């Protein structure tokens, strides 16, 4: 019975009770000693009393209501005393029998007493109504009147469509709950199902039902009944039992699910019940067969189980069972909340597993024994493969779910010898194993590349060299002689580690030869991360304003040696195709071209990798390899080959990146070997098209024009202007880029002729450039020439390997003083340049209309 509004029989609406008089303290009532102090309501609450007569609610006065226990009968009751005369009792109603109280609209309590009279209390304050409702709850739950109940009637809002009006929702707050029979039987299964289903309808009933299920271990009783029903092949009862178990899982109680997967007997019984699905009456699943298949859960290394076998299931078996229930058995039957509980339990179990693996005392040095498989030549290959799969599984678990534990877990793995396992996996013929290996390595690199590069803040080494940590600690305790000896030993170990390129070599092999495109990309990203200078504590390119390198010199030496080892041992293999295109025989060049045509994506990655290396590493480290090996020549040569256009776009991006380095020696190499010849040959084929290749080619020239105020770019502009002037004037006349480039070259020539202007004066930032250089002027290894060969600048000692670079730049910076007069170029050098420029200016005028583009 719902009370929505009180009719006009009363002088004022009970839901809007507004009495001007303030609440007065009722000392007489407060001083009464009741039989049960803990049960009575807190204090008198101002209220109006209503009786229902016919269809009207009649006002029976205003007073103060208390919930208390009657002294004479020891029965709980509502008692309302008049606010005018406290001796006058307006209402005394006992809470007895099976009365159903309803709380409506926050301030109303409505009920029907045992005599059949409909009563209502309208409270002035919400707190007063809540206080009396709490009294009802205490009376029921303390068993003073266990059969009474309290419902909360809520009014739901109109739905968005407006097709349905407001509707009422009834929620049980307290009351008697009907429980299933203590001992389930074949005849009581349907009753049990109905009662469990009803228990889901309210939070209170749900709580009480869960309390019953947990306290009585009711699922164990159902499992015992299941064995009898299966023996008798009672399909209807088995289907009902299946429904009961699903309803129990719908309760979403962790304690129940934990109990269900706590032992093999319970897991087997649960899986057996779930095999009998009413939705497929003619079919029976085979969950028990799958869970009991020992081949599904292999033991790679014997370890002490973290739980007693007779009491609980170990955490690894539990993980297998939970994953199977979550992913196979229950997704179709349960809602997202119930599946979310399983997911959270899987997560919690994973935390236990990772913590167990990190505890060598608990797991019997599991990791050490696991990685020892790869040192033991007699270890079965099957165990080695299973070990990779095992660790791959838990590395992904830690990566996806346990970010807080990931760093410690990966650090422990690397220190234990993870790289030996990864090396084995990457070199294996099994594609799945290679994928697992590269994913493990990628996870380690993503977390901290220093773990792989074996460099850390505390000079701690990893992998098999675990004793280095204690060695570093002993340095502080030893005397001077021992300290020096130990330090030398530690230094030698680090140098050996920096020269170890086995992992980059394996990654390079994967990148070049593996047929799996996804694996190629992962290998490429892993190589990039291994070559990233930012993984080290000391940034090699970080210089202070006075030109002094920050950080520890010894540490920098380790880092430099690591990168030099890469260019000596890995790069020649990785970039062999580019080298062959530039300096190989005709047969070798043809083979290289066929490979380019077959796998253009691979060589796009390699072009990007070259650009990355040149920008990431010091020029003195990377430049000697790319210039001496002529790998750069081979890259640009691709533009003249019949290969995929996307590969040519990658080459253009790489070429542009090298030019943007603004490096003197690279510019010398480009000019000396005329690397622009293939570029303009390709540009000729796309100059008349409105396409992306055309835009990239134009963009490269625009970059040179925009930066022609610096010497390196100005000299490139001069080289292009002298050798490809006809192209600039005719082939790209639809834009101003060609004319602007010719003008930039002329302005630079004029600037060099002017004895009062230098490139240093034109750009004072030149002094802050770590590589202030130009192929036109160089003090020790510079460009001094007055000749041209086939229209191309001839360099005299223009590039001589590692002799040009940071050392030469430092000499050049040291030769400049603060005064402007000290910034002038050497007069002898200027005369040589002017001689060269004047000769070529005359030559340009003669041949401006006859100059052809070089092939």
UniProtKB/TrEMBL annotation:
One of the entry's Gene Ontology molecular-function terms is: protein phosphatase activator activity
SUPFAM superfamilies in the record:
ARM repeat, PH domain-like
Question: One Pfam family name from the record?
Answer: EVH1_PP4R3
GO CC aspect terms: nucleoplasm; protein phosphatase 4 complex
| Stretches for region Disordered | 797-822
Q: Which UniProt keywords apply?
A: Nucleus
One of the GO BP terms on file:
DNA damage response
Query: Where does the UniProt annotation locate this protein?
Result: Nucleus
- Serine/threonine-protein phosphatase 4 regulatory subunit 3-like central domain: from which residue to which, for each copy? 193-746
Annotated ranges, domain PP4R3 EVH1-like: 45-144
InterPro entries named in the record: ARM-type_fold, EVH1_PP4R3, P4R3-like_central_dom, PH-like_dom_sf, PP4R3-like
PANTHER family named among the record's database cross-references:
ATP SYNTHASE GAMMA-RELATED, SERINE_THREONINE-PROTEIN PHOSPHATASE 4 REGULATORY SUBUNIT 3
Instruction: Write the protein's name.
Output: Protein phosphatase-4 regulatory subunit 3
Gene expressing this chain: MPUL0B06630
């Amino acid at each position: 019975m719902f009370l929505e509004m009180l009719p006009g029989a009363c002088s004022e609406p009970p839901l809007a009770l507004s009495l001007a008089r303030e609440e007065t303290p009722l000392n007489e009532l407060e001083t009464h000693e009741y039989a049960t102090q803990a049960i009575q309501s807190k204090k008198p609450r101002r209220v109006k009393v209503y009786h229902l007569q016919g269809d009207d609610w009649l006002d029976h006065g205003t007073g103060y209501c208390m919930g208390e226990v009657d002294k004479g009968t020891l029965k709980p009751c509502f008692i309302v005393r008049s606010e005018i005369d406290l001796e006058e009792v307006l209402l005394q109603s006992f809470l007895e029998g099976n009365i159903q109280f309803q709380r409506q609209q926050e301030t109303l309590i409505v009920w029907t007493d045992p005599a059949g009279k409909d009563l209502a209390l309208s409270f002035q304050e919400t707190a007063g109504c809540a206080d009396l409702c709490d009294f009802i709850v205490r009376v029921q739950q303390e068993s003073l009147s266990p059969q009474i109940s309290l419902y909360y009637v809520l009014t739901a809002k109109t739905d968005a469509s407006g097709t349905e009006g407001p509707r009422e929702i009834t929620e049980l707050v307290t009351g008697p709950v009907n429980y299933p029979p203590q001992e389930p039987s074949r005849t009581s299964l349907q009753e049990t199902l109905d009662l469990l289903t009803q228990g889901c309808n309210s939070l209170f009933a749900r709580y009480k039902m869960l309390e019953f299920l947990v306290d009585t271990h009711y699922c164990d009783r159902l499992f015992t009944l299941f064995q009898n029903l299966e023996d008798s092949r009672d399909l209807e009862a088995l289907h009902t039992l299946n429904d009961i178990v699903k309803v129990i899982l719908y309760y979403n109680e962790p304690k129940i699910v934990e109990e269900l997967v706590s032992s093999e007997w319970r897991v087997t019984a649960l899986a057996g019940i779930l095999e009998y699905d009413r939705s497929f009456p003619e079919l029976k699943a085979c969950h028990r067969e799958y869970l009991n298949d020992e081949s599904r859960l292999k033991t790679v290394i014997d370890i002490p189980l973290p739980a007693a076998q007779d009491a609980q299931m170990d955490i690894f078996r539990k993980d297998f069972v939970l994953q199977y229930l979550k992913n196979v058995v229950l997704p179709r039957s349960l809602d997202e909340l119930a599946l979310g509980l399983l997911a959270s339990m899987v997560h919690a179990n994973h935390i236990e597993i990772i913590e167990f693996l990190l505890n060598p005392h608990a797991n019997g040095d599991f990791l050490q024994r696991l990685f020892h498989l790869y040192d033991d030549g007699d270890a079965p290959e099957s165990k080695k493969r299973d070990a990779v799969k095992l660790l791959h599984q838990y590395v992904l678990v830690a990566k996806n779910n346990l970010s807080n534990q990931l760093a410690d877990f990966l650090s422990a793995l690397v220190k234990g010898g993870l790289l030996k396992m990864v090396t084995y996996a990457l070199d294996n013929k099994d594609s799945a194993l290679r994928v697992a290996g590269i994913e493990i390595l990628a996870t380690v690199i993503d977390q901290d590349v220093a773990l792989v590069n074996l460099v850390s803040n505390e000079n701690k080494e990893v992998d098999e060299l675990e004793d280095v940590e204690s060695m570093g600690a002993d340095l502080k305790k030893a005397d001077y002689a021992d300290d020096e000896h130990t330090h030398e030993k530690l230094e030698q170990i680090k140098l050996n580690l920096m020269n170890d390129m086995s992992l980059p070599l394996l990654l390079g092999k994967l990148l070049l030869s593996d047929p799996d495109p996804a694996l190629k990309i992962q290998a490429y990203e892993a190589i990039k991360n291994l070559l990233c200078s930012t993984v080290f504590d000391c940034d090699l390119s970080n210089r202070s304003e006075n030109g002094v390198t920050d950080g520890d010199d010894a540490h920098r030496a380790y880092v430099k040696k690591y990168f030099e080892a890469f260019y000596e041992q890995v790069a020649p293999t990785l970039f062999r195709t580019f080298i062959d295109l530039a300096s190989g025989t005709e047969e070798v060049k043809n083979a290289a071209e066929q490979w380019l045509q077959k796998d253009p994506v691979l060589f796009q990655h390699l072009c990007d990798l070259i650009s990355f290396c040149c920008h990431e590493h010091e020029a003195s480290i990377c430049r000697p390899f790319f210039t001496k090996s002529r790998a750069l020549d081979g890259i640009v040569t691709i533009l003249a080959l019949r290969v995929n256009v996307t590969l040519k776009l990658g080459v253009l991006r790489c070429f542009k990146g090298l030019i943007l380095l603004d490096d003197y020696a690279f510019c010398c190499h480009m000019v000396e070997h005329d690397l622009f010849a293939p570029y303009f040959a390709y540009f000729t084929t796309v100059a008349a098209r409105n396409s992306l290749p055309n835009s990239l080619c134009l963009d490269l020239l625009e970059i040179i024009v925009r930066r022609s105020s610096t010497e390196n770019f100005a000299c490139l502009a001069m080289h292009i202007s002298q050798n490809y002037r006809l192209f600039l004037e005719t082939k790209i006349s639809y834009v101003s880029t060609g004319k602007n480039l010719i003008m930039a070259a002329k302005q630079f020539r004029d600037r060099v002729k002017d004895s009062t202007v230098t490139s240093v004066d034109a750009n004072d930032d030149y002094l802050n450039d770590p590589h202030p250089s130009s192929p036109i002027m160089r003090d020790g290894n510079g460009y001094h020439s007055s000749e041209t060969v086939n229209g191309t600048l001839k360099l005299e000692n223009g590039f001589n390997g590692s002799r040009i670079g940071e050392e030469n730049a430092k000499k050049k910076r040291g030769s400049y003083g603060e005064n402007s007069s000290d910034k002038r170029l050497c007069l002898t050098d200027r005369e040589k340049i002017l001689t060269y420029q004047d000769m070529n200016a005359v030559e340009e005028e003669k041949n401006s209309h006859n100059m052809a583009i070089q092939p």
